[in-house]
Amino acid sequence: MRIVLLGAPGAGKGTQAEVISREKNIPTISTGNIIRDALKSGSELGKKARKYIEAGHLVPDDIVIDIIRERLSRPDCKDGFILDGFPRTIPQAEELERMGVHIDRVIEIDVDDEVIARRMSGRRVCPSCGTSYHIEHKQPKKRDVCDNCGDTLVQREDDRPETVRERLRVYHEQTAPLKNYYADRNKLYVVKGQEDVNDTIRLTLAALKS
Ligand code: ADP
Ligand code: ZN
Description:
Blueprint: E1 2-6, H1 13-24, E2 28-30, H2 31-41, H3 44-54, H4 61-72, E3 81-84, H5 90-98, E4 105-110, H6 113-121, E5 123-125, E6 132-134, H7 161-175, H8 177-184, E7 188-192, H9 197-209
Parallel strand pairs: 1-3, 1-4, 2-3, 4-7
Antiparallel strand pairs: 5-6
Bound molecules: adenosine-5'-diphosphate (ADP) and zinc ion (ZN).
């Protein structure tokens, strides 16, 4: 099964991808993770992508398409995969079709912008061990201190309110049109994101069976 996960940044696509990946035994391909790894390793790709990411903008289509082309050609993709964060523009979706990649199902995780803005602006991460917290939903025992290692928690650069707003704007402008694109092809299933992540998981699994 070839699945695309659609949804705004912070909608929780990554969590749903993990569950589907386990359930169906297919890999998750997250262009966001691939690009973030490249930033960390300081590779050529990372150098090209940095300025776009930090501004909350999309990385140019040709760069991301090259990443996907290479990744989908690997043997672990032969029985299916989950695309998390790709396609993110109509040209990316068209290119996927041109590559002869046939998508079976597109699941949109639908969460309101205000909920997303609140989630992302409240997120704090530990710069040393990577554990993530939330100022309302997942507080550390001691304010701004990592439970795990004691380091001081920080806000990710791209979680700052201005950058979050920009990422949401870009989503509505460039990615949301994909909903119609896939609805026209009878592939779109909308899952309304729930307060409790386990409820969202149930809806996602139901959408895969329908
Ligand atoms: P988010 O945290 O916004 O859900 P991701 O983790 O999927 O985003 O990706 C992080 C960043 O990587 C995006 O803001 C964007 O700059 C870049 N990126 C990821 N996937 C794509 C794509 N398909 N096209 C263009 N840029 C992408
Ligand atoms: Zn820590």
